[in-house]
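Folding Problem: From Residues to Backbone Shape
Fields: amino acid sequence; protein backbone structure tokens
RECORD BEGINS BELOW THIS LINE
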Amino acid sequence: MFTDDQVEAAVRALSDPERFAGAERLVAEAAPQLQRVLAQALNEGGWFGPAHRSELLSALAEPDEAVRAARVETLLAEETRMGMLVGVAVGWQLAAELGTTTEPEGD
């Protein structure tokens, strides 16, 4: 496990455009496989199951346009946050898997 200081330093390192660009390239190359893993994790976690669908349909049926818009925006924001959190968890696990199954470069 990582300390708070280690995580903070790693997050700060992401602000370096060069380092982040490299990560973006790697993710773009692996996107199709990662999308499947993310979708599976979200589905198995129940994030987009019947309760979510019910909330969405209820929001869309809201007669007041302003309230409907606010409810839909809230659902979209919640979906985005959940996708990001699960995506980070998938990324951490992927890094752990790669760290235990790959040989260091140059060996």
Q: What stands out?
A: The chain has a mean pLDDT of 84. The CA atoms of residues 56 and 75 lie 7 Å apart. Residues 65-101 form the longest helix (37 residues). Helices lie at 4-13, 17-44, 50-60, 65-101.
